[in-house]
Write a structure and sequence with these properties.
- The complex is a heterodimer of chains A (about 300) and B (about 375).
- With about 300 residues, chain A is mainly α.
- Chain A has 2 domains: about 60 residues, no CATH class; about 200 residues, MetI-like fold, CATH 1.10.3720.
- Chain A is built from 12 helices and no strands.
- In chain A, helix 4 packs antiparallel against helix 9.
- Chain A is globular, with a radius of gyration of 24 Å.
- With about 375 residues, chain B is an alpha/beta fold.
- Among the domains of chain B are: about 170 residues, P-loop containing nucleotide triphosphate hydrolases (Rossmann fold, 3-Layer(aba) Sandwich); about 80 residues, no CATH class.
- Chain B is built from 12 helices and 12 strands.
- An 8-stranded mixed β-sheet of chain B has the order 6-7-8-3-9-10-12-11, with helices on both faces. Chain B has a 4-stranded antiparallel β-sheet with strand order 2-1-4-5.
- In chain B, a hairpin with an 8-residue loop joins strand 11 and strand 12.
- In chain B, about 45% of the residues are buried.
- Classes of the chains: A mainly alpha (about 300), B alpha/beta (about 375).
- Chains A and B meet through helix 8 and helix 9 of A and helix 3 and helix 4 of B.
Chain lengths: ~300, ~375
């Protein structure tokens, strides 16, 4: 098992290499660059752009630029930001990442804590009122874009009943609305997966065997059904976690959360090359690690799966 | 007061029929008398009496009469075969006995099931649960899918002992190891922590038998226990079921489509067709003197060693009838080469056959006394 994990971790290196090369190429193949606009329609004089490019080494051949980026990455330097010239990419990521991870982990916990029981209850009361209710919530959660949910939450909880503040990240009260808004979609996703998986398990022969032993309904569900039903659900938990902890542009913007999620979108619009690369790599590492975690979890849940 | 060997009864489980009040058990003689009385009662009583059981399934096309007005009895320690082709209602009958028919779509709509003096269909869900696994063990057809893949063998065997006998985790594990040894798994203690996928099909079916017998039940329902296994393993599993049911004094209902197995294992046989019992009797009577053309068909369609080379295996022409709207006719009549007009007008009752064949009943006008089939 340990050998397997080590091998999988080593495999992440070539994955990151390919992801970074592809991102680099696509990024540089996109027309216009970081110095074409300075906002508010201001355009730099032609000589200034050339000078800036020379300063940041953007006039060198692309492979040289890439290798320099890799070299800097290896010593932990993500390079300068071309848009926020008083901050490095390290500053930008370092300032926001923990807020984003904090928000993401809370939203993930909420999705699992609400989504799985919702799916289980729906399956156990198949075609009953709880099932229809849970299915309704799931469909609503999947069909409602996060900005709509965010605004509804703001209107009700921040404006009408004034339970929670509408923006910022200072106190736990500030955390509530963005967490719920971010968890809305994954709750629905997890609930649907869990429900479908539980319904499938309900028909399994070993569940009939469990009933034939005279176990309490509660034991049949908790011991014999849920664990087997969770195997497919775990598969989607990995990507969901990766998406949540790398931040959301929309949620962070609406609730003024000082995370890094918004840079994901902004950096691309601004051609802020260093930030783009940093964000993509962060996402790639998270996905790769989460996939490994999911595979290890499989072995823990399902004894038929053993790695060597 | 408990006189039977039933001290391990879980709290709240259904009581056996009470003794009459006029028996005093203070004296040695009284106690003997009481035991005698209980014994007599047990002998007079059947372990299982099924009366007019009907189980229906609601489907999109209509109501399927899977089990239709089935009645039979089972003695303590007896082995009864339930024989018939696929879809004739044998499995649904067995599931009905433990109220495990999946609902919806299935439902027991009529009848009475008296098990050891207890009216099963009148029990609450919780009382029924206390009977399952404790008094009635169940072995299912496919050992590859009937064990939970994520739990250890030891846990799965110990589970019902913990629930019904109130054993501690350790005591239940000891009992499970003992049972695992009894069903012929070598080095049983070492294999308690194994998972089902580490066992072969035959070994898994042995585990199922250990699970079914974990609480020393009075009745074992074996639903095609060897169908999914290869032939050499079949014989071992059947022998195991027989020897353990003898040892524990367990009555067995063996469901099979294999007449050879039924002949070797059972005291009595119920032949089922299209949701009905069409012939019932002692195993020898059924095989030597079958009284229903369907039973002949079943016997004829067995491959024989003395068959001429190149001779085709005989089959019963046609398919079983649709059980959604069974008509008034004999259900086998469309496939019966002896059928006459009366067979297509109404269905015969089960009636006695043979002079010295007590309990031999068949549902056929043609073989009734004075019938046209000799």
């Amino acid at each position: 098992m340990l050998g397997y994990i080590v091998r999988r971790v080593l495999w992440i290196v070539p994955v990151l290499f390919f992801v970074s090369v592809i991102t680099f190429v696509l990024m540089r193949a996109t027309p216009s660059g970081p110095f074409d606009s300075f906002g508010a329609g201001r355009i730099a004089a032609p000589g200034v752009v050339a000078q800036l490019e020379r300063k940041y080494g953007l006039d060198k051949p692309p492979h040289e630029q890439y290798l320099r980026w890799v070299g800097n990455l290896l010593i932990g330097d993500l390079g300068p930001s071309y848009k926020y010239r008083d901050r490095t990419v390290n500053d930008i990521v370092g300032d926001g990442i923990w807020v984003t991870v904090h928000l993401g982990v809370m939203a993930f916990a909420l999705s699992v804590i609400v989504g799985i029981p919702l799916g289980v209850i729906a399956a156990l009361r198949h075609n009953g009122v709880p099932d229809y209710l849970a299915t309704f919530i799931s469909v609503l959660g999947i069909a409602t874009p996060s900005f709509v949910l965010s605004i509804l939450l703001l209107v009700f909880f921040a404006v009408t009943v004034r339970w929670f503040p509408s923006y910022g990240w200072q106190t736990p009260a500030h955390w509530v609305l963005p967490t719920i808004a971010l968890a809305g979609f994954p709750i629905a996703q997890i609930a649907r997966y869990t429900r479908a998986s539980m319904l499938e398990v309900t028909r399994k022969d070993y569940v009939r065997t469990a009933h034939s032993k005279g176990l309490k309904e509660r034991s049949v569900v908790s011991i014999h059904m849920i664990r087997n039903a969770l195997i497919p659900v775990v598969t989607i938990l990995g990507p969901i976690f990766a998406f949540l902890v790398t931040g959301s542009f929309i949620i962070e913007t609406i609730f003024s959360v000082p995370g890094i999620g918004r840079y994901f979108v902004l950096s691309i619009a601004q051609r802020d090359y260093g930030v783009i690369m940093a964000m993509v790599m962060l996402f790639a590492v998270t996905i790769a690690v989460m996939n490994l975690v999911v595979d290890v979890l499989y072995a823990y849940i399902d004894p038929r799966i053993r790695y060597s | 007061m408990t006189i039977t060997d039933d001290q391990s009864r879980a709290p709240g489980s259904p009581e056996l029929a009470e003794l009459p009040e006029d028996v005093t058990i203070e004296t040695e003689e009284g106690r003997r008398l009481a035991e005698q009385l209980e014994d007599d009662r047990r002998h007079a009583r059947k372990l299982l009496e099924v009366r007019n059981l009907s189980t229906h399934f609601t489907t999109r096309d209509g109501v399927v009469h899977a089990v239709d007005d089935v009645s039979f009895e089972l003695d303590y320690g007896e082995t009864l075969g339930l024989v018939g082709e696929s879809g004739c209602g044998k499995s649904v009958t067995a599931l009905s006995l433990t109220r495990l028919v999946p609902n919806p779509p299935g439902k027991i709509v009529a009848g009475e099931i008296i098990f050891d003096g207890i009216d099963i269909l009148k029990l609450t869900a919780n009382e029924m649960r206390l009977l399952r696994g404790k008094k009635i063990g169940f072995i299912f057809q496919d050992p590859m899918t009937s064990l939970n893949p994520t739990l250890t063998i030891g846990y799965q065997i110990a589970e019902s002992a913990r629930v019904h006998m109130g054993l501690s985790r350790r005591a239940a594990a000891d009992r499970a190891a003992e049972l695992l040894g009894k069903v012929g798994i070598p080095r049983a203690k070492d294999r308690m922590g194994d998972y089902p996928h580490q066992f072969s099909g035959g070994m898994r079916q042995r585990v199922m038998i250990a699970i079914a017998l974990a609480c020393d039940p009075k009745l074992l329902l074996a639903d095609e226990p060897t169908t999914a296994l290869d032939v050499t393993i079949q014989a071992q599993i059947l022998e195991l079921i027989r020897s353990l049911s003898d040892e524990f004094g367990t009555a067995v209902i063996l469901i099979t489509h294999d007449l050879g197995i039924a002949a070797g294992m059972c005291n009595r046989i119920n032949v089922m067709y299209a949701g009905r019992i069409v012939e019932t009797g002692n195993v020898d009577d059924i095989f030597e003197n079958p009284q229903m053309p369907y039973a002949w068909g079943l016997l004829d369609s067995l491959p024989r060693l003395d068959q001429e080379k190149g001779e085709r295996l005989r089959t019963i022409e046609g398919l079983p009838p649709d059980l959604i709207n069974p008509g008034p006719e004999c259900r086998f009549s469309p496939r019966c080469q002896y059928a006459r007009d009366i067979c297509r007008e109404r269905e015969p009752e089960l009636s006695p056959r043979g002079e010295n064949e007590p309990g031999h009943l068949a549902r056929c006008f043609g073989t009734e006394p004075g019938g046209w089939i000799q």
